[in-house]
Amino acid sequence: MTTDTSVLYFIFNREYWFKNYNFALKSAGPEVEALHRKFGTVFDIKRYALHDGPGIRVTVHFKGCPLSCWWCHNPESQYFGPQLLYRRERCVACGMCAPACPKGAISTEGGAMSTDSGVCDGCGACSEVCPSEARVTCGARMSASEVMKSILKERIFFEQSGGGVTLSGGEPMAQPEFVMELLGECRKHGIHTALDTCGFVDAESLLDTVPFTDLYLYDIKHMDPEKHKKYTGVDNDVILSNLSQLGGRGAVINVRVPFVPGVNTDEENLRATAAFVSGVRGVVGLNLLPYHSAAEDKHDRWSMEFRLRGTCAPAEASLRRAVEVMESQGIRAITGG
Amino acid sequence: MNERIERLRRESFEAVPRFSAERAVLETEFYKENEGKYATPVMRGLNFKYICEKKTIYIGPDELIVGERGPAPKAVSSFPELTCHSLEDLKVLNARRMQSYAVDPKDAELYRDVVIPYWRGRSMRDKAFARMPKKWLNLYEAGLFTEFGEQRALGHTSLDNLIYEKGMLDLKGDIAKARSALNFLNDPEATAKDDELQGMDYSCDAAILFAERHADLAERMAASETNETRRAELEKIAEVCHRVPACAPRDFWEAIQMYWFVHLGTITELNGWDAMSPGHLDQHLLPFYERGIADGTLDREKAKELISCLWIKVNNTPAPPKVGVTAAESGTYNDFTNINLAGLKRDGSDGSSEVTYIILEVVDELRLLQPQCNIQTSVRTPDEVLKAAVRVIRNGMGYPSVFNADMVVAEQMRVGKTLEDAREGGTSGCIETGCSGKEAYLLHGYLNTPKVLELALNDGVDAMTGRPIGVRSGDPRNFRTFDALYASFEKQLKYVVDTKIEADNYLRARYAELFPATFLSAVIRDCIKNGRDYYSGGPRYNSDYIQCTGIGTVTDSLSAIKKHVFDDGRVELSALVSACNKNWEGHEALRLTMWNKTPFFGNDDDYADAIMQRVYGSLFESIDGKRSTLGPTYHLNMLSTTCHNYFGKMTGATPNGRFSGTPISDGTSPSHGADRNGPTAVVKSLGKMDQVKSGGTLLNQRFLPSLLSGEKGVNGLVNLIRSYFKLGGHHIQFNVVDEETLRDAQKRPEQYKGLLVRVAGYSDYFVDLDEYHQEEIIARTAQEVF
User: Quick check: is B784 in a domain?
Assistant: First the structure.
């Protein structure tokens, strides 16, 4: 298994990674980097998740993703590291955040608190004291045992419902050591595991997870390499080849296709998807995940560019048609998670 | 639903609730004529008979099941012997926007000229208030508790299968036997028992008479009916009414009519505002259903139609309105009939059947305010039954609510009931555990736990008025430790509970003395055998409950104090108390710190949940085993119905960041908006409450429809419920609506006339709630998953 994540990231998309997480990590020095090996960056642990695999689940959302899909429903999960979100409408300008900031990045500005984003490193000290939740730090470095503590609280629901844990993102496999540690712990406790991946990850690391993963939720966004690059920022060749390899190793796979009108819902792409998926061993089903306009609001909240403005949720008829196309290739397809 | 049911349903739905003075006038006539002639139980029995003899009999077009409490559907009787409405009350009832009762000027005149002159000063309520001590009045007026006995006859009641096995004539036989066995030589109570049994005997006559009058009317109507089909139906109705309740029912139709006559009898005899329910109706009806199917006299559709007719009858019976200061407040039309489904049989086997599914279909199709129903879920209950219930829940009516039948058994066995009797138990009106048909379980009123903490933080002074009403329990500035503060809370709690129980015992004894429930006593096991009334220890089991409210609010408030004052030392207790007493004015940052930076109940956080356990333990210690006139019969249960709104209005700002006057937490639910980790965390927190020591808890969860879509949604909810019950949960119920829908309903109520929402232990029409209650529903945390 690849242990040097910087090399891994380098191979995939040098520019992307350096612009984001790894650059910050490297420049922070060896101590922080060592810390990174022991801690994962998690932005949410969602309980009572019903749509990320069988039963009642806990979904652990990792922060950081090599892709930047236009329709991303969790845009805050793209950047690799804790980030400060400031919701001005909640701010009561009490001023408690300013002295709490170790970098002195916060000042009062016209009845609100302004943060120098060049100085802020997302340490979370201000959101810790902010009484009104105007300052929220998205993403926290957590140890595997901390995450497991949250997971184990839900045991009774797993046992009752046949549920378990889903590692999702962002992209969990961008933090492969942490993923392996969590999967191993879950195995020890007999908890069902699912891994939700975009597939744009190191093949060897991914295959290493097979003995510890009961189900893969594997995304296919587009079959056309050019369009894939346009809408997600990366090629799809690694993704497709990883999926085939995973199937070859005996993995149980649910393919997930975000169904985004105007992007990947044309007949040609659906047929190509179906044709490819039907050739992969181990695929037990395919979920069409309809686009939701909530993505727009989320991008706005994070001041991120949104390139699908005005796109509506797909029509029922088009979803039905897509299911038919998949089924014509012998793939069990359903709408929704 | 078929055409008949559709018509009857529409009529019931559209009928305007109105006030009827008929019963009050009849009762006044009877009392004026007979006061002083008879022993009280005999008087009550004869009074009931007089009403049954004289009241207007109603049989509507298309009806199959007959009988109304008032002269017509939704014409509501009043009970001046308990609470005598003033003319001002009637004016308010007629005029108020929500839950109004149309009052005919003629009825108001009758009240002015006949009813009020006789009952003013004689009614239970007038007598009670004249006697209540000052310390009780102080706490009562400040909103520390409510008193059920001052508004209506005490007692949550549900029946077992007795009335399907014995008719009134059989019961009269039992009564005669009991009377002949009385020992006037050695039993000092023999005379009292004889009076009581004679009262029961007259009550049984009354019920027969009431049915015979329906039979007569049906026969007369049949004679002039031109439509052949309807004539046959009327003849059948006459036949049924000749048969029941005099004799035990022989078939499905008679069984349902039997129940309805008994139900009407109990709520005509006294104001059973508290609850009157059939108990395990599906189990009671099953033998009749099976027999009818087997011999070909019944089919599934006919059974469903008859059940639907019963449902409509219950819906025709809104609750009698309250009196006095509360008349202007909106209440509910709901008379709290809660029908138990599935559950366990006496032998411990699964109680669900085809009738269970039929009833769920009826509930889903009719969508009426009343009756409510609940699914008693044991580990033996098939998932299929629970799934069928969840599909009805998903349609957003708030019911069926879901109960843990195994806990219901355990709770009852803890307080000494036999295993078989406990299995027959269930829920009567809201969430209260009781032994159907064998128990008098008297609920005495709600306890405002957050207000008790308020007293502790203000050394016994009411923060809303500045009046000293509690005991002195120490100046909060002098509390050096959390335990010192907590001891002060416990001291106030003991004082408040003891003061309440003194009053409860007084009221209980007064009911036993003045208003024995002779008809109800005839159908509750062992009353005849013991020669004692429902209120006097006649039933096999007797218990008294105080309903504790606001455990979420009080836990969160104590958690806020513990963390910020005593653990972190960042806030002075006196500063926090003073900010609360100013309703946080000028202290918004402090308020938000309390609200956002405190571990709260409902998040599976041991810090807060341990405090909840401690509070629950204190409530238990202060109530359980306290003595009534019948021995150590007091227990606690944990529900609030709508009282968390009233209590909220009476309670100042609380240290958890809650504003003065806003609702406190409902039932055992977390404070509104305090549960931030989803429903599994909520039920984990609730699972840390030792619920078996209560007589029931209430957990409200609001779900948006998206969460329940598809089979995944259904399975998710089923598994959530099962998990909660594994953790020892007693009850959970769901409101399935989205905020957008509710906002739209506020704007265009006419478009949402039929929108039912789960309010507390019952559902109500959203548009019937006042704005305050509407906002409260909206504020309940929506558990959204994306």
Answer: no
User: What b-and-e string marks burial along A258-269, b requiring 16 or more CB atoms within 10 Å of the CB?
Assistant: bbbbebbbeeeb
Could you tell me which of A69, A80, A78, A98 has the C-alpha nearest to residue A259?
A69
> Does residue A51 sit in the same domain as residue A90?
no
Q: Which of B432, B454, B490, B776 is catalytic?
A: B432
Identify which of B611, B637, B609 has the alpha carbon closest to the alpha carbon of residue B623: B637
Mean pLDDT of chain B: 93
State pTM to two decimals: 0.92
CA separation for the pair B532, B535 (Å, rounded):
8
Say whether B716 and A50 touch across the interface (CB within 8 A): yes
Contact A50 B679 (CB under 8 A): no
Q: Which two tokens stand for residue A65?
A: 């993703």
Contacts of residue A336 in chain B, CB cutoff 8 Å?
709-710, 712
Question: In chain B, what residues touch A131 (CB-CB under 8 Å)?
Answer: 589-593, 595-597
Q: Indicate if B432 belongs to the active site.
A: yes
pLDDT interval class at A32 (50, 70, 90): low
Q: Is residue B756 part of a domain?
A: no
Enter the DSSP assignment of B672.
Answer: T
Catalytic residue among B430, B435, B527, B580: B430
* Chain segment B611-655, per-residue pLDDT in tens: 999 999 999 999 999 999 999 999 999 998 889 989 999 999 999
Residues of A in contact with B707 (CB under 8 A): 50
Number of domains in chain A: 2
DSSP string, A115-148: E-TTT-----HHHHH-TTS-EEEE-EEEEHHHHH
List CB contacts (< 8 A) between A133 and chain B: 592, 596
A·B CB contacts under 8 A: 75
Q: Are residues A130 and A230 in the same domain?
A: no
∠ Cα B277 B302 B280 (to 5°): 25
- The answer as to whether B6 is a domain residue is no
Distance from CA of A290 to the nearest CA of B (A): 12
Q: Is B680 in contact with A133 (Cβ distance < 8 A)? A: no
Q: What residue of B is the nearest CA neighbor of A48?
A: B680
CA distance B58 to chain A (A): 52
CATH number at residue A173: 3.20.20.70
- Of A48, A132, A156, Cβ closest to residue B679: A48
Cα first-last separation, chain A = 31
| Percent of chain B whose predicted confidence (pLDDT) is above 70 | 96
Decide if A47 and B677 are in contact by the 8 Å CB cutoff. yes
Instruction: Based on the fold, state whether residues A94 and A210 are members of the same structural domain.
Output: no
A99 & A221 share domain:
no
State the helix-helix crossing angle for B228-243 and B252-269, rounded to 10 degrees. 60
Contact assignment for A160 to B678 by CB distance below 8 Å:
no
Tens-digit pLDDT profile for residues B78-97: 999 999 999 999 999 998 88
What's the CATH code of the domain at A87? Answer: 3.30.70.20
* B592, two tokens: 């938000």
| Amino acid letter, B372 | Q
Active site residue B430: yes
Neighbouring C-beta atoms of residue A139, cutoff 10 Å: 25
What would the mean pLDDT of A150-170 be, rounded to a whole number?
Answer: 96
Domain hosting B677: range is 133-151+438-696
Same domain, A328 and A255: yes
CA dist B306 → B208, B309, B336, B362, B492 (Å) = 21, 5, 21, 10, 53
ipTM score for this prediction: 0.89
Structure tokens at B449: 């736990």
User: Considering only alpha carbons, which residue of chain A is nearest residue B591?
Assistant: A131
Please answer yes or no on whether A46 and B678 come within 8 Å at the CB atom. Answer: yes
Closest CA–CA distance from residue B784 to any residue of chain A (Å):
10
Find the residue in A nearest to B726 (Cα): A156
